[in-house]
Write a structure and sequence with these properties.
The complex is a heterotrimer. Chain A is built from 19 helices and twelve strands. In chain A, the strands form three sheets. In chain A, strands 1, 2, 3, 6, 11 and 12 form a six-stranded mixed sheet that branches. In chain A, strands 8-9-7-10 form a four-stranded mixed sheet. Chain A is 48% helix and 12% strand. By secondary structure, chain B is mainly alpha-helical. Chain B has two domains: 2-72, no CATH class; 83-294, MetI-like fold (Orthogonal Bundle). Chain B has helices at residues 2-49, 53-58, 62-66, 74-80, 85-116, 122-131, 137-151, 170-194, 198-206, 211-222, 224-240, 243-248, 257-262, 273-294. The model of chain B is unreliable at 300-308 (pLDDT under 50). Chains in contact: A-B, A-C, B-C.
Chain lengths: 439, 308, 309
Amino acid sequence: MTRYSSRIFPFLLLLLAGVALTFAACNDDDDGGDDGPTDAPTDAPDIGSVDVLGIWGDDELTSFEALVKPWEDSTGGDLSFLGTRDITAQLTTRVEGNNPPDVAIPAEIGLFQDFAAEGLLAPLSECPGLEAKITANYPDGFVDLGTVDGTLYGFFMKADTKGTIFYDPAYFAANNLTPLTADSSFADLIALSDEILALGLPPWSMGQGANGGTGFPGTDFIQQILLNEAGGDAYDGVIDGSVPFTDADVKDAWEKFGQIALTDGYTSQGSADVINATNFQDGVFPPFEDPPEAAMTYMGGFASGFIADQFPNAVAGTDYDFFPFPGGGVTGGSNIVYAFNSDPTTCSFLDHIASADAQQIWVDLGGFTSVNSNVDASSYPDVVAQAQAEQLTTAETFRFDLDDAIGGDLQSTFFTGVTSYLADPSTLDSILADIEAVR
Amino acid sequence: MAAQRISAQHRGRLSDTLRKTFGRIPLHFVILATCLAWSIPTIALLVSSFRDPSAIAGSGWWNALLDPTQWTLTNYDNVLNARGMTDAFINSLIITIPSTLFVILIGAFAAYAFAWMKFPFRNVIFLIVVALLVVPVQMTLIPILRLYTIVTIEGSIPIIGGNVFGVGSYSGLWIAHTAYGLPFAIFLLRNFFGGLPRELFESAHLDGASDLTVFFKIVLPLSVPAIAALAIFQFLWVWQDLLVALVLLGDPDLAPMTLQINSLVSSFGSNYQVLTAAAFLSMIVPLGIFFALQRYFVEGILAGSVKG
Amino acid sequence: MIGRAWWIPWLWLAPTLALLGVFLVYPSVDTVRRSFLDERSDNFVGLDNYQFIIDNPTPLSLDTHAALLNNLLWLTMFTAVCVGLGLLMAILTARVRYEAAAKAAIFVPMAISFVAVSVIWRFMYDIQTDVGTVNAVFAELGKDPVAWLISTEAPQKAFLDVPPNDTPSPFQVNNFALIAVGVWNWTGFTLVILSAGLKSISKDLMEAARVDGAGEWQIFRRITLPLMLPTIIVVTTTLVIQTLKTFDLVWVMTGGAFKTDVVATLFFKAAFINRDFGVGAALAVVLMAFVVPIMLISIRRFQVQEEIR
């Protein structure tokens, strides 16, 4: 051992030193800045750090940190954020392991409701002034969603509308097509599709593939149809269980979705197999290719971000835009913020991020729709983002994303059901029964 | 008899010549073909790391080979300049190196005991140790997290940072990784130790050597290939770990590279193309260890040891 | 052997026993306990969770039968190919001067993080023929593109238009596609360990045999194989057990969808997404139970080896 050790260590040290130096040399702007207490000058005492578990990464994380920075500067607090897309598993593990974060910011509320019912969360009323602030500045619908057993436990930020059908305005104009409005009907959508099909272009592009969530675009589509065809009460019924998945209204929504996805020639993907195999982001691009490979694509508002990334020269509103899902009913998702304790640091942090001033920061950076009614609609960075925000805040009928509202087993079974349905539409009844059985 | 031996030698020489001329070709062909097939996805990954995201999703990676104007360093730029990446790199080292060393040391001690010491229930315990290979990590995290939460000793360790023990501490992570790596380490090392000739030990003991002397002066030097193999894999697995760090560390300031890279991808999965560049940057150190330890995969260590 | 105090072996074993006891044994026992309790581990439910696994009442949510069959497929095919290929390459590369480079080419996939593996194979298997490598090759050969990760058709259908169209459950194109990724990833492991084992065989022994006129195949059968058998067994056992735990690869590539679930992904879904710790624990126990037959085989081999030493 002694003979070899004299040769291993110098070699390894050299290797490690070399790699470390390369990293250090390439990494100019990284300093200890965010690895310790903030070095911004502050008079306030350091109120400690807040441990946040969320899903954001990349630009989202950068924007969120910008949103939090004023709080850090004025209070000396420190944001300790961990983002993971497997947040449900993480939260479950940490809660079971008696080590929950201070604050959680996931996108589905099933787990939130479970935690609240089990008494693990701190009611917002425990933070001075917070509950009043939320009830005053947030739409009733969102306040209700954050309430469990009569107590307010969470509030919402970063909402997304799912009532958007994206299209290329230039193509529509060139072919004398009229985008639909909120007053249109589903039959109008089919008529439009046929019109485009007659022009020789597949009217739709659709992709269901998503790592771990394959099938979610289909569920979004189905819930939109359900809301607009069967109404808000039926929708609510599906969430709370009074309307089973085997109900006629629900089945009808599925079949209408099937009509779009499976009618011959309707999708540029061509067959159910290809739709299932196509990644959901890839499924959004065909209408904006040159020449276009499809005319419309249904996806939530966050798709405008993908489109802008994939086609950097595309101008919002001119090269890509959306029209509202026919019927006027809007479903949407949002991140919910809730806390496991009501420590002063946590409360101060929550207070800050719920405020319109803080959220304005992210709105300006793009990719964020606020539901705080004090945020000015005209401050959104481009026409598409603005239209999405308006759709969310002015919708006559708004409902939270169905599978996010239920969460857990039912949600993942719903996803799987969509892909199974596409692969074999004749099994719809048994699929619906299976989904209902998991409730 | 002599005639038979001579014709055998003739035959030997002819087949030798044949073998030298043609015999090596199939060998090289098989090896190179396999290596090429293996490398295609790796090359695809490498090429993709030099492409824009719109290019990656738009066309196959081989197109980039034909069109050099597509090549860009943006992905590497994004990873290297990402906030906290240097610190994350150092954190990865802080987590991985001790974990690897502890596993080798503790595992080797246990393997030696299992291989060359007699004690009751020796085989049963060994089999249980090997059976523990099957325990999935996710399953252990909840009870361990509970335990760690109770025994957390807060404080700030100088230089490396983090708590003294428990949640958010490097020491907690070292011990966890060591424990997770032990079953494989013991299984592998015991096999090698057990294969050493009995005579070695007998002559050593006759000369009055103690267990420790035999362990350090005879067993370890002769098992260098096995220890090198173990070091490569333990280092690799801890270096690539995401889940244990996420759960037991819980502090982004102490995060290893895997966590940092993870946060480069948005919640929708956008910006996934940085993962291609990140994969190669993250690969450098484990590959470096692999190459550095290749020299210990030497033959004939045992040769001459018994005669002497 | 030598006279040593009774407590010395235990001293050498102490750190191991302590660490394993806390980190692996205690959670395992806790899991077994939970498998007899309900979802939130509050009430005793006897064998209900195991009954759930046997009955498979909600295949759309947790398809236990498909998962068990898939695990069997992985255990056999994945292990056999990895070990076989690793052994072959270990022996072949030992004879060429560029051994280290050749081994490196096969080892590199192990050094790639599994998220990056999923990214690149997502593009290898992509359905669009101008993006997906495999389907591009298929297009060149005039064949239809295959949805590698989705299709549950019989595997030979992807390559040849030969019936049957559907083979029994685990034999699906997508399972084989996933196993291919696994093999690509893990053969480096078997290669490195087997190579280490090969090096431990005395070269003198093989030279002596060659001088005596033994052919290469004879040397392999009579000398190399028997002497490497312990290492082969270690690698195979480790790989088999590792396969039982296979989670990351399947989870990241398909999330277990399209009947590619394995017991580990089911356990994860049940415990961490559905928050049903009863069923999750039962699945984990089933997983761990798979290891018992492997241990039984090892016991027998052990006793044989002990007699030789």
